[in-house]
Amino acid sequence: MTAPLFSPLARSLPATIPFVGPEALERQTGVAFKARLGANESVFGPSPKVVAAMAAAAAESWAYGDPEQAELKAALAAHHRLKPENITVGEGIDGLLGHLVHLATEAGDGVLTSRGAYPTFNYHVAGRGAVLDMVPYRDERPALFEDIDALLERARATRPKLVYFANPDNPTGSFHPAEAVERLIREVPEETILVLDEAYGDMAPAGVMPPEDLIRPNLVRFRTFSKAYGMAGVRVGYAFGDPGSIRQFDKVRNHFGVSRMAQAGAVAALGDQEFLRQTVERIASARERLTGIALAAGLTPLASATNFVAIDCGRDAAYARAILTEVLKEGVFIRMPGVAPLDRMIRVSVGREADMALFEAALAVALQKVD
Amino acid sequence: MTAPLFSPLARSLPATIPFVGPEALERQTGVAFKARLGANESVFGPSPKVVAAMAAAAAESWAYGDPEQAELKAALAAHHRLKPENITVGEGIDGLLGHLVHLATEAGDGVLTSRGAYPTFNYHVAGRGAVLDMVPYRDERPALFEDIDALLERARATRPKLVYFANPDNPTGSFHPAEAVERLIREVPEETILVLDEAYGDMAPAGVMPPEDLIRPNLVRFRTFSKAYGMAGVRVGYAFGDPGSIRQFDKVRNHFGVSRMAQAGAVAALGDQEFLRQTVERIASARERLTGIALAAGLTPLASATNFVAIDCGRDAAYARAILTEVLKEGVFIRMPGVAPLDRMIRVSVGREADMALFEAALAVALQKVD
User: Fold this and answer.
1) Does B230 touch chain A (CB under 8 A)?
2) Please, what is the average pLDDT of chain B?
3) Looking at the complex, does the CB of residue A8 fall below 8 Å from at least one CB of chain B?
């Protein structure tokens, strides 16, 4: 009897994936979605300048992209008033989270998050054989918040290698004021790295984001071009923090992994802050519209600092799932959290008026069928 | 005293990176290269159809790419007469090698390669805490070959989790006939996965590549769009093999990591086999030219089945490095292997006639200065 191929850890990992793409759902049903509002993409798109920069870079793509991403890091440093050595760039926040879990944990190490928070972080923790501990969201029905006090209390007791915290939060859309996040940063144990996921930070209202020069060795903050900049399909995100901690990423990352088009596109995106400002305005306006649709349908939209709205359907998970299923059948792609008590909600990304109208109609049909 | 941040393994890893990009060298010297012949990129570029497909996809890049890459996998399956479940797609072979090392090894596990073979594979092995064992290249001066007999003998003795083998080989350009590779596949221990890196397979002469339907549970073969297809900067490669083994990648990969532009570009590249055929012809012709340049300069070019030529400088590593340094100073980017006995060579990628002429002139200056 020979030893098995693949490691005991690999063989123990589930074959499930964090998120099923809308394309997979379309292949299952044979019907294309009319509106794509499930993945918190920005249908307002990338800036035309980004599209032009990427199209120009396409023809130069016989050459590897700069593995040090010097031009992009210089642009990011200027944008955030940091230095290039404060920044590492990767294949989206997902890729960077995988690297940080790789660097900070070994099999059996403890990691802390909130029950119902970002599944892809949990996926990377499982992939490393680290052990995930969770505290509940603070339930102020209908609102749900990641619970800073509970995270701190548990972290002090268990001294995990990593604590995950998102602000603004996905999938609830809720947020904490900067002072509360700064307290979390200050009070998390020194030997614990705070994984501060700020994917939605570019669209957060004033007073939500801690200052960017708040640098600690045990703090790594994550941003992306996937959300407000409208570049989800491009795959470029970044982490920033203490140079000694940021430098660790160079030990495990895929050095040539950020494409030439992605680097050119991200530089162009940073250079078009007026487009970003307009997008954030459009997001705010569409969020109002989406909130109105939910209220008019008798459901409860949660306050959101993001490009999506979590809508409390007012009953249990089965009810929310039934609504989700009917909305999908109507050709509108949305998602819902998989974990209680968050699973009383559906989650809808904002879109253009045409997208919002499609959701409004789909929701009306769904509620009629489900009730 | 608090526990340190980052794991003992991470802290033990060197901060060195597998390859320094030409951009970093340019930043150090302040001078831009006139010819870029060091990274085995294809200056013949991607097909115009690929450029058009990626430019079109740029505007759609607000949406994540299909995490299952269904269209691309279907196209690859048709191209190779395989099934989609035989194939996994990732952010270049580099990214996929990282995933396979992650899946197959745990800290302390043995992995086997050849001394001087692909450094990025070794980098991923180190990142996992696995232990690298190496056998020498078979030295038939001037030629150098990965030594199938030595690899098999050592693998039978040590039963490593992985054996790395490239055909055609980088950095020597040498190759083995398909029958020899098939013997390696047949005779490698059942509990060892053979990592068959075929990055240069699309430009190999007839009789070098084993048939693509040669599928074994302990065989994973790697291909890329970076070399013959001229898409190094796009970041898309794939692995194929037994569905049970290929499925493992889904447990650790970055599911949304292959960009929308990369997927569209790769599909277009597969659809333009005439461009590939022309590129392979241009590579062969440029290889002849490069071989002639080396011979005329009194150096010894090695036979190559790739888009580069390893040139034996005929003395020791210091001599080869001195030539390399002078060629770089002349504004021509080339590389050389870092490990004996391969470090008696410089390695030059093929290019257009203008690139080849620049190298010819730079080599003449270098030899005059060094002698």
Assistant:
1) yes
2) 97
3) yes
